[in-house]
UniProtKB/TrEMBL annotation:
Gene3D superfamilies: Sortase. Residues 41-71 are annotated as: Disordered. SUPFAM superfamilies: Sortase. This is Sortase family protein. The keyword Hydrolase applies. PROSITE patterns: PROKAR_LIPOPROTEIN. Residues 41-61 have a biased composition (Low complexity). It comes from the Bacteria. Keywords: Hydrolase, Signal. Transmembrane segments: none annotated. InterPro entries: Sortase (IPR005754), Sortase_dom-sf (IPR023365), Sortase_F (IPR042001). GO terms for molecular function: hydrolase activity.
Amino acid sequence: MTVRHRGALAAVAAGVAALTVAGVVACGSQPAEDVGAEEAAALAGSATPTPAGTSSSVPVTAGELPTGEQSVPPVRLVIPSIDVTATVDPVGVNPRTDEFEVPPSVDRIGWYRYGPGLEATAGSVVIAGHVDSADQGKGAFFRLRELGRDDTVTVTGTDGRQRAYRVVARQEYDKSKIPLERYFARDGKLRLTLITCGGPFDAKTRSYRDNIVVTAVPA
């Protein structure tokens, strides 16, 4: 997930090369067809569409952490159906590369700390992870493309509380066409958004063509 700064704003770019590290290898299989697209769109409510010609980057929020003692970062994520148990690190923007700073270890995943935390009552809680690495092997989200409707995702926060979510949608986008204003919004109904890379791997650009996006709602 590439994140860029636009002035004082943190912005999310359509490329997701940063979700994989140098030397990534292609996924061995492709996801099934998209499910739940209409439901995922409805959850976003009135998210403002990206203006024409600016689809490569979408302003999200001011480049500072949310204020107040009520913010609850996620620390652990479990998805039994695809055998995932992963530590979640708070991540932001790498000032040198302007990229979404997903943890370098592929077995860890990153929560976008400039968005909503687990205490939120609205908006999209974004967690992104690597799909794989030539050096480290399969990433925590290697099988994210296999998730289907009603699969359960459990996220534990720093408060020790476990929160269960139910998958309602799984979609694959060309990186240049992903509606980021939908997935990085602070408004609309509360949902959990999981993102990784997918589709064919381009050896020249050393990145995947697509993004896999899974949307889940409180169970």
